[in-house]
Design a protein that fits this description.
Largest sheet: none
Structural class: mainly alpha
CATH superfamily: Tetracycline Repressor, domain 2
Strand content: under 5%
């Protein structure tokens, strides 16, 4: 059976990631769980403490996902493809987590600093990798941090912006998602290759 604290984190992530921090109440979280607000406060003494716990767990999940992709992939564009696949899958399966990342950045609070500190080692690892690939000519020369930003936002945007897809006449489905992923990766590979 799932621990009550974990269930609270799951529901809080869904609310914070889809509705935002300010629009989420502890009462709403408790109501969805079928518990009293005091139960939520027993596990997490304030809404801010709950947000901090959700951010810490989410950062760890993202870190594990990206670390696994980086560890098992080869070099060059093969590694870039592996990481893009991991981020794309993550974005499709856990859009609320990516919504939380955007929300935390918007809040500009201590959780944003904490989240940044937690993902910074992955960012530095990716920057070092891109720099090394640029040095051997696999990846075109440029600012590796900007390349990382552009690649991340493109992958996450295509995976999560369902309304933009509809406006462009792309009806969301599993088959469409697979086609979008193929086209996006071919586009990004071409943009990154030297």
């Amino acid at each position: 059976m799932t621990r009550t604290g974990d269930r609270i984190l799951d529901v809080a992530l869904q609310h914070f990631g889809t509705r935002g921090y300010e629009a989420t109440s502890l009462d709403a979280i408790a109501g969805e769980l079928g518990v009293r607000k005091q139960t939520v406060l027993y596990w997490y003494p304030s809404k801010q403490a709950l947000l901090d716990a959700v951010v810490a767990r989410s950062a760890e999940e993202l870190h594990l996902t990206l670390d696994a992709a980086l560890t098992t992939a080869g070099d060059g564009l093969v590694r870039i493809d592996a990481v893009m696949r991991a981020v794309f899958r993550f974005a499709v399966r856990r859009p609320e987590l990516l919504g939380l990342l955007r929300e935390v950045g918007r809040l500009g609070s201590a959780p944003a600093v904490d989240l940044g500190a937690r993902v910074q080692p992955l960012v530095e690892r990716a920057v070092e990798f891109l720099s090394a690939e640029m040095a051997v000519g696999t990846v075109r020369r440029g600012d590796p941090r900007l390349m990382l930003l552009f690649t991340y936002t493109a992958v996450v945007g295509v995976a999560t912006e369902v309304e933009a897809q509809r406006v462009l006449g792309v009806e969301p489905s599993v088959a469409t998602l697979a086609r979008l992923r193929r086209e996006l990766f071919a586009f990004l590979r071409a943009a990154l290759a030297s």
